[in-house]
Amino acid sequence: MKSRSHILPVGVLTALLLSQVCSGIKWLTLSQTTSHINQTQHCKRLSGLVSSQVQLCRSNLELMQTIVQAAREVKKTCQKTFADMRWNCSSIEIAADGQKYPPDLDRGTREAAFVYALSAATISHTIARACTSGDLRLCTCGPIPAEIPEPGYRWGGCADNLHYGLMTGSKFSDAPMKMKRSGSHANKLMHLHNSEVGRQVLRESMVMKCKCHGVSGSCSIRTCWRGLQDLREIAMDLKTKYLSATKVIHRPMGTRKQLVPKDIDIRPVRENELVYLQSSPDFCSKNEKLGSVGTQDRQCNKTSVGSDSCDLMCCGRGYNPYTEKLVERCHCKYHWCCYVTCKKCERIVERYVCK
């Protein structure tokens, strides 16, 4: 009789399979890392990483602190960007063990599309900036542009190293989707597509930044370099794409299956649009199966006509008022030279929360 000791219990096998299915952005659990990653044995203890990510950790320990920072930036930026909407990116508050995501991030929804795109953009953005600040020894400033600047301008400073950021960031963040058991083919295609959209928005955010030189601030000469816009601006661009995202289906196109727009499948998916496979709930009521936490007790804006209005945020259920005391600096005076003194003033403001 053959030994059965090597056969895993059904529960354990299911958990392992699920960990592969929803591992695409599990690296975001690094946002909860408190210890400094400075030894190779630390890599295998990090939750949410697949084998190729652990290998990258071992070969480039210095990079991991930057990736931890990127994970924290994704969480903070996502929540700020959607603070005025029913879905406020609360899904990013994933379990410390990283074993399971809320369904809104695990079902191929437009919310998942946004988080994957933002995650891909953020990790490359953070790495590119770390090269500039000297936090990473394996990279330096970005290259000087080939074009000749206009009269009065000159290239200098330290450009953000976008090339290194994109190369290294994509290698790390796309690794889970390139594994054999990384969920359905449709989900894999969706996540890889949306991640690339995030990186495309990042590329387009590269702008010329300059510093003035000259007698008495005349700015007769400007030293310029290529730098990335702040993450909040990139996130707002991605939010616009989230609002106009295209629902897709997975069907044969030629010799293989591809993602095509559900309602207008005569055209291929555009490279600059976010795509999703599953419709989202309205996020009005709590529904754990759909990943909705609801909007009860969320603060709303009584005078707004946008998504943060009490009518839209509260889904027609109404709202309750309450008062809050604010202590602010006031009656500030500038004293020569060189400090400011202020008094403290109190005022009562009225707030509103959804029923």
From TrEMBL:
Predominant cellular place of this UniProt entry's protein: secreted
Matches recorded under SMART domains: WNT1
PROSITE patterns linked to this entry: WNT1
Signal peptide: 1-24
InterPro entries on file: Wnt (IPR005817), Wnt_C (IPR043158), Wnt_CS (IPR018161)
Subcellular location: Secreted, Extracellular space, Extracellular matrix
Keywords assigned by UniProt, alphabetized: Developmental protein, Disulfide bond, Extracellular matrix, Glycoprotein, Lipoprotein, Secreted, Signal, Wnt signaling pathway
Gene Ontology terms for molecular function: cytokine activity; frizzled binding
Entry's family note: Belongs to the Wnt family.
Annotated function: Ligand for members of the frizzled family of seven transmembrane receptors.
The protein's name: Protein Wnt
Species this protein is from: Oryzias latipes (Japanese rice fish)
Taxonomic classification: Eukaryota, Metazoa, Chordata, Craniata, Vertebrata
